[in-house]
């Protein structure tokens, strides 16, 4: 009962003072963007057949998507510092919609890869602006606000992939992507209509880029930012490796149908809808170290058990255990948003997220290479081992979320 009362109290606080519609717009756009990105793993078996590509090449396609999502975050952060977050996020939604149209009409694998990279680049414009504007709107509840937004992202990843799978099975794989285009355009319009417009020219003036970079470097030296960034890199490497080929693993190794695999994949993110707001609130209350350990211990067990589990319901249980790691994003990114000074928050977040996500994007292609050599099961045991390292590093952090 106390948990329910706490959730209701947090929800009322987030909605208060006219801030609710802005949170809905930001979270809704994020949910559709992430849902669009996670449609790729579900459609990967269809893409492999249509373009005659191996598991390694299929993994590289997912890597291209993640890489595009990573490299644009630094310029996206700079733009968020200098201009209106509304413009940056709206542009991201429109670019992804246009890129998906190119994907579904791609005549060759080369065009498919290029358009997929553009999908990632468009998506990369959104996340930093999302965090910086939430930091301004909710200076006292960034963990909860970001947790709700990220949970909505998981809601999009829960709903859109199975819909795409059904459409692909009933019609053609292109239908599994094309239905997302109007959703993105509506989301972009909602963001544009709800969020504040660009600041005045005098207010928008930022320090010189070199000064801003010096401030970012100073922030990195003065806190646990580098250490947390390395933890975030390892987590992204694990998460992208797991999600990039999990539906394919369920179909080709566990011999589930495509629809059953899509259902389990969406279930992975469905748990995140519940975990992320709780993880964000936990960050605000008990600090980063304790909150991170709580959400990461279970997935170690789940990943280690995965190769030895058979049957839909057993796999569903293991998938649910693994999915608690989704809460770590709300924790680490809340810390990062508070660790940088306000003037360079967007640039600093862009530097960190671009760096760690670019390196982490290597995960799917490396994991695909392991799978191609007949070590699909062993790959998940390797991910469990890396996650053990993440937990051990997390235990070295101070108890307080704000400690340097």
Automatic annotation (TrEMBL):
Keywords for this protein: Cell membrane, Membrane, Transmembrane, Transmembrane helix
InterPro entries named among the record's database cross-references: MFS (IPR011701), MFS_dom (IPR020846), MFS_Efflux_Transporters (IPR050189), MFS_trans_sf (IPR036259)
Chain ranges passing through the membrane: 21-43, 55-79, 91-115, 171-192, 224-242, 262-279, 291-309, 315-336, 348-367, 379-397
UniProt GO MF annotations: transmembrane transporter activity
One CC-aspect GO term: plasma membrane
All residue ranges annotated as the Major facilitator superfamily (MFS) profile domain in the record: 21-402
UniProt xrefs under Gene3D superfamilies: MFS general substrate transporter like domains
Cell compartment(s), UniProt: Cell membrane
Name used for this protein in its record: Fucose permease
